[in-house]
Design a protein that fits this description.
alpha/beta, Rossmann fold, 2 domains, 6-stranded mixed sheet, 5-stranded parallel sheet, 12 helices, 11 strands, 37% helix, elongated, disordered N terminus
Length: 290
Amino acid sequence: MSGASSATDSPLSALARCRVLLTRPADQAHSLAAVIREQGGQACSLPLLAIVPVQTAEDTQRVRTQVMALDQYEIAIFISTNAATLGLEWIENFWPQLPLGLQACAVGPGTAAVLRQLPWPVHCATTGVTSEDLLALPVLQQVQGKRIALFRGKGGRELLAETLRERGARVDYVELYTREVPPHAPQQVRQLLQEQAINCVVLTSQQIFDSFHVLLQRAGALDVPQDSAPSPLLGLQQTLTLIVPSARVEEIARRAGYPHVLNAGGADDQAVLACLRQNFATPLESLEAR
Protein backbone atom coordinates (compact mmCIF):
# COMPACT_ATOMS: atom_id res chain seq x y z
CA MET A 1 0.00 0.00 0.00
CA SER A 2 1.39 3.39 -0.96
CA GLY A 3 2.14 6.06 1.63
CA ALA A 4 -0.16 8.61 -0.05
CA SER A 5 -3.18 9.66 2.00
CA SER A 6 -6.65 9.47 0.55
CA ALA A 7 -9.27 12.18 0.99
CA THR A 8 -11.11 10.05 3.51
CA ASP A 9 -8.26 9.30 5.92
CA SER A 10 -6.79 12.76 6.11
CA PRO A 11 -7.64 15.76 8.31
CA LEU A 12 -8.29 17.57 5.03
CA SER A 13 -11.66 15.80 4.91
CA ALA A 14 -12.83 17.53 8.09
CA LEU A 15 -15.25 19.78 6.20
CA ALA A 16 -16.83 17.06 4.07
CA ARG A 17 -20.32 18.05 5.22
CA CYS A 18 -19.88 21.72 4.25
CA ARG A 19 -21.57 23.12 1.16
CA VAL A 20 -20.78 26.80 1.58
CA LEU A 21 -21.93 29.91 -0.23
CA LEU A 22 -19.41 32.77 0.06
CA THR A 23 -20.81 36.27 -0.43
CA ARG A 24 -17.91 38.68 0.13
CA PRO A 25 -16.47 40.67 -2.82
CA ALA A 26 -15.28 38.36 -5.59
CA ASP A 27 -11.55 39.05 -5.26
CA GLN A 28 -11.72 38.34 -1.52
CA ALA A 29 -13.38 34.91 -1.68
CA HIS A 30 -10.77 32.87 -3.54
CA SER A 31 -8.45 31.96 -0.68
CA LEU A 32 -11.20 30.83 1.70
CA ALA A 33 -12.92 28.83 -1.05
CA ALA A 34 -9.64 27.07 -1.81
CA VAL A 35 -9.08 26.10 1.84
CA ILE A 36 -12.64 24.81 2.22
CA ARG A 37 -12.18 22.61 -0.85
CA GLU A 38 -8.77 21.42 0.36
CA GLN A 39 -10.43 20.33 3.60
CA GLY A 40 -13.09 18.28 1.83
CA GLY A 41 -15.92 20.80 1.60
CA GLN A 42 -17.66 22.49 -1.30
CA ALA A 43 -17.63 26.24 -1.86
CA CYS A 44 -19.15 28.55 -4.42
CA SER A 45 -19.34 32.33 -4.60
CA LEU A 46 -22.09 34.87 -5.10
CA PRO A 47 -20.62 38.31 -4.32
CA LEU A 48 -23.19 40.48 -2.56
CA LEU A 49 -20.90 43.48 -2.13
CA ALA A 50 -18.51 45.32 -4.43
CA ILE A 51 -15.86 47.72 -3.17
CA VAL A 52 -15.36 50.65 -5.56
CA PRO A 53 -12.49 53.10 -4.82
CA VAL A 54 -13.44 56.77 -4.95
CA GLN A 55 -13.18 58.06 -8.50
CA THR A 56 -14.50 61.59 -8.82
CA ALA A 57 -12.03 64.46 -8.90
CA GLU A 58 -13.62 65.95 -5.77
CA ASP A 59 -13.38 62.71 -3.78
CA THR A 60 -9.82 61.88 -4.83
CA GLN A 61 -8.64 65.43 -4.10
CA ARG A 62 -10.20 65.25 -0.64
CA VAL A 63 -8.43 61.98 0.16
CA ARG A 64 -5.15 63.30 -1.24
CA THR A 65 -5.33 66.41 0.94
CA GLN A 66 -6.13 64.38 4.07
CA VAL A 67 -3.37 61.82 3.49
CA MET A 68 -0.80 64.54 2.79
CA ALA A 69 -1.71 66.02 6.19
CA LEU A 70 -1.27 62.70 8.00
CA ASP A 71 1.55 64.15 10.12
CA GLN A 72 -1.06 66.27 11.90
CA TYR A 73 -2.73 63.17 13.37
CA GLU A 74 -1.76 61.02 16.34
CA ILE A 75 -3.92 57.98 15.47
CA ALA A 76 -5.17 56.41 12.24
CA ILE A 77 -8.10 53.99 12.54
CA PHE A 78 -8.98 51.48 9.81
CA ILE A 79 -12.42 49.88 10.02
CA SER A 80 -11.92 47.04 7.51
CA THR A 81 -9.37 45.21 5.41
CA ASN A 82 -10.64 47.23 2.43
CA ALA A 83 -9.93 50.46 4.29
CA ALA A 84 -6.49 49.19 5.27
CA THR A 85 -5.56 47.98 1.77
CA LEU A 86 -6.69 51.14 0.00
CA GLY A 87 -5.45 53.38 2.80
CA LEU A 88 -1.94 51.94 2.62
CA GLU A 89 -1.86 52.53 -1.13
CA TRP A 90 -2.60 56.20 -0.57
CA ILE A 91 -0.20 56.53 2.35
CA GLU A 92 2.71 54.87 0.54
CA ASN A 93 2.19 57.22 -2.42
CA PHE A 94 2.78 60.30 -0.26
CA TRP A 95 4.77 59.08 2.74
CA PRO A 96 7.96 57.11 1.94
CA GLN A 97 8.47 57.21 5.71
CA LEU A 98 5.54 57.29 8.12
CA PRO A 99 4.96 60.44 10.16
CA LEU A 100 6.77 60.22 13.50
CA GLY A 101 4.56 59.06 16.38
CA LEU A 102 1.58 57.98 14.26
CA GLN A 103 -0.22 54.88 15.62
CA ALA A 104 -2.70 52.64 13.83
CA CYS A 105 -5.82 50.89 15.14
CA ALA A 106 -7.43 47.93 13.38
CA VAL A 107 -10.94 46.57 13.83
CA GLY A 108 -9.78 42.94 13.56
CA PRO A 109 -6.80 40.66 12.93
CA GLY A 110 -7.22 40.65 9.16
CA THR A 111 -7.08 44.44 9.06
CA ALA A 112 -4.16 44.44 11.49
CA ALA A 113 -2.22 42.03 9.29
CA VAL A 114 -2.52 44.43 6.36
CA LEU A 115 -1.44 47.41 8.47
CA ARG A 116 1.60 45.60 9.86
CA GLN A 117 3.20 45.82 6.44
CA LEU A 118 4.30 49.27 7.62
CA PRO A 119 6.62 49.93 10.60
CA TRP A 120 4.19 51.56 13.04
CA PRO A 121 2.44 50.47 16.23
CA VAL A 122 -0.76 48.59 15.31
CA HIS A 123 -3.41 48.15 18.01
CA CYS A 124 -6.05 45.48 17.41
CA ALA A 125 -9.13 44.46 19.36
CA THR A 126 -9.00 40.84 20.47
CA THR A 127 -12.58 40.64 21.78
CA GLY A 128 -14.40 41.06 18.46
CA VAL A 129 -14.67 43.09 15.26
CA THR A 130 -17.27 45.74 16.11
CA SER A 131 -16.94 49.45 16.79
CA GLU A 132 -17.61 48.67 20.44
CA ASP A 133 -14.61 46.32 20.55
CA LEU A 134 -12.41 48.92 18.91
CA LEU A 135 -13.55 51.61 21.36
CA ALA A 136 -12.40 49.41 24.24
CA LEU A 137 -8.75 49.56 23.13
CA PRO A 138 -6.56 51.25 25.79
CA VAL A 139 -5.03 53.57 23.18
CA LEU A 140 -8.49 55.07 22.50
CA GLN A 141 -9.43 55.81 26.10
CA GLN A 142 -7.53 59.05 26.78
CA VAL A 143 -7.89 60.92 23.49
CA GLN A 144 -8.76 64.42 24.72
CA GLY A 145 -7.34 66.93 22.22
CA LYS A 146 -5.96 64.26 19.87
CA ARG A 147 -6.57 64.21 16.12
CA ILE A 148 -7.73 60.91 14.66
CA ALA A 149 -8.02 59.97 10.98
CA LEU A 150 -10.71 57.34 10.46
CA PHE A 151 -10.18 55.44 7.20
CA ARG A 152 -13.41 53.90 5.92
CA GLY A 153 -15.89 53.71 3.05
CA LYS A 154 -18.65 56.22 2.50
CA GLY A 155 -21.51 55.76 4.94
CA GLY A 156 -21.75 53.22 7.73
CA ARG A 157 -22.11 53.35 11.51
CA GLU A 158 -21.34 56.63 13.23
CA LEU A 159 -20.83 55.18 16.72
CA LEU A 160 -17.04 55.08 16.54
CA ALA A 161 -16.53 58.71 15.56
CA GLU A 162 -19.31 59.98 17.82
CA THR A 163 -17.90 58.22 20.88
CA LEU A 164 -14.35 59.40 20.23
CA ARG A 165 -15.61 62.97 19.82
CA GLU A 166 -17.43 62.63 23.13
CA ARG A 167 -14.08 61.62 24.63
CA GLY A 168 -12.59 64.87 23.35
CA ALA A 169 -10.90 63.79 20.11
CA ARG A 170 -11.12 65.48 16.75
CA VAL A 171 -12.10 62.81 14.23
CA ASP A 172 -11.89 63.24 10.46
CA TYR A 173 -13.28 60.68 8.04
CA VAL A 174 -10.98 59.59 5.21
CA GLU A 175 -13.53 57.99 2.89
CA LEU A 176 -11.76 55.77 0.38
CA TYR A 177 -14.48 53.76 -1.34
CA THR A 178 -18.16 53.14 -1.85
CA ARG A 179 -20.00 49.87 -1.31
CA GLU A 180 -22.24 48.67 -4.11
CA VAL A 181 -24.59 45.71 -4.33
CA PRO A 182 -24.10 43.69 -7.53
CA PRO A 183 -27.36 43.37 -9.50
CA HIS A 184 -27.99 39.65 -9.05
CA ALA A 185 -31.29 38.24 -10.24
CA PRO A 186 -33.24 36.25 -7.63
CA GLN A 187 -33.08 33.30 -10.04
CA GLN A 188 -29.32 33.15 -9.45
CA VAL A 189 -29.93 32.61 -5.76
CA ARG A 190 -32.52 29.92 -6.45
CA GLN A 191 -30.22 28.11 -8.85
CA LEU A 192 -27.19 28.21 -6.57
CA LEU A 193 -29.00 27.16 -3.40
CA GLN A 194 -30.81 24.30 -5.10
CA GLU A 195 -28.19 22.95 -7.49
CA GLN A 196 -25.32 23.20 -5.02
CA ALA A 197 -27.45 22.01 -2.06
CA ILE A 198 -26.05 24.86 0.04
CA ASN A 199 -26.29 24.33 3.79
CA CYS A 200 -24.13 27.23 5.02
CA VAL A 201 -23.85 30.88 3.96
CA VAL A 202 -21.00 33.16 5.05
CA LEU A 203 -22.14 36.77 5.52
CA THR A 204 -19.26 38.94 6.71
CA SER A 205 -21.09 42.24 7.34
CA GLN A 206 -24.54 43.57 8.10
CA GLN A 207 -24.84 45.04 4.61
CA ILE A 208 -24.07 41.65 3.06
CA PHE A 209 -26.65 40.00 5.32
CA ASP A 210 -29.24 42.60 4.32
CA SER A 211 -28.55 41.98 0.63
CA PHE A 212 -28.84 38.21 1.08
CA HIS A 213 -32.11 38.52 3.01
CA VAL A 214 -33.64 40.75 0.32
CA LEU A 215 -32.58 38.33 -2.43
CA LEU A 216 -34.21 35.42 -0.60
CA GLN A 217 -37.40 37.42 -0.25
CA ARG A 218 -37.40 38.22 -3.96
CA ALA A 219 -36.68 34.59 -4.79
CA GLY A 220 -39.78 33.53 -2.86
CA ALA A 221 -37.73 31.71 -0.25
CA LEU A 222 -39.21 33.31 2.84
CA ASP A 223 -42.83 34.38 2.89
CA VAL A 224 -45.52 33.48 0.35
CA PRO A 225 -49.29 34.02 0.36
CA GLN A 226 -51.27 31.15 1.87
CA ASP A 227 -52.97 30.32 -1.43
CA SER A 228 -49.67 30.04 -3.32
CA ALA A 229 -48.18 26.73 -4.35
CA PRO A 230 -45.35 25.54 -2.09
CA SER A 231 -41.90 26.64 -3.24
CA PRO A 232 -38.90 24.30 -3.12
CA LEU A 233 -37.07 27.16 -1.42
CA LEU A 234 -39.53 27.39 1.46
CA GLY A 235 -37.87 26.32 4.68
CA LEU A 236 -34.44 27.75 3.80
CA GLN A 237 -34.80 30.38 6.47
CA GLN A 238 -35.26 27.58 9.00
CA THR A 239 -32.57 25.22 7.73
CA LEU A 240 -29.67 27.31 6.41
CA THR A 241 -26.78 27.97 8.78
CA LEU A 242 -25.53 31.55 8.58
CA ILE A 243 -22.02 32.51 9.66
CA VAL A 244 -21.73 36.18 10.66
CA PRO A 245 -18.85 38.27 12.07
CA SER A 246 -20.28 39.62 15.32
CA ALA A 247 -22.95 39.32 17.99
CA ARG A 248 -24.63 42.44 16.60
CA VAL A 249 -25.13 40.91 13.13
CA GLU A 250 -26.14 37.61 14.76
CA GLU A 251 -28.92 39.39 16.64
CA ILE A 252 -30.09 41.14 13.46
CA ALA A 253 -30.22 37.81 11.59
CA ARG A 254 -32.12 36.05 14.37
CA ARG A 255 -34.65 38.87 14.54
CA ALA A 256 -35.13 38.47 10.77
CA GLY A 257 -36.20 34.87 11.36
CA TYR A 258 -33.03 32.79 10.94
CA PRO A 259 -32.66 30.35 13.88
CA HIS A 260 -29.30 28.87 12.89
CA VAL A 261 -26.78 31.71 13.13
CA LEU A 262 -23.15 31.30 14.19
CA ASN A 263 -21.00 34.21 15.36
CA ALA A 264 -17.47 33.64 14.03
CA GLY A 265 -16.09 36.51 16.08
CA GLY A 266 -14.50 38.02 12.99
CA ALA A 267 -14.76 38.42 9.24
CA ASP A 268 -11.29 37.18 8.26
CA ASP A 269 -10.66 33.78 6.69
CA GLN A 270 -9.17 32.32 9.87
CA ALA A 271 -12.22 33.19 11.97
CA VAL A 272 -14.67 31.84 9.38
CA LEU A 273 -12.67 28.65 8.87
CA ALA A 274 -12.43 28.04 12.61
CA CYS A 275 -16.20 28.46 12.90
CA LEU A 276 -16.78 26.01 10.05
CA ARG A 277 -14.48 23.41 11.56
CA GLN A 278 -16.01 23.77 15.01
CA ASN A 279 -19.58 23.34 13.76
CA PHE A 280 -19.32 21.19 10.63
CA ALA A 281 -16.25 19.00 11.11
CA THR A 282 -16.83 15.31 10.43
CA PRO A 283 -14.99 12.91 12.78
CA LEU A 284 -12.37 10.99 10.82
CA GLU A 285 -13.67 7.66 12.10
CA SER A 286 -17.05 8.46 10.54
CA LEU A 287 -15.41 9.23 7.25
CA GLU A 288 -13.39 6.02 7.34
CA ALA A 289 -16.55 3.98 8.00
CA ARG A 290 -18.16 5.10 4.75
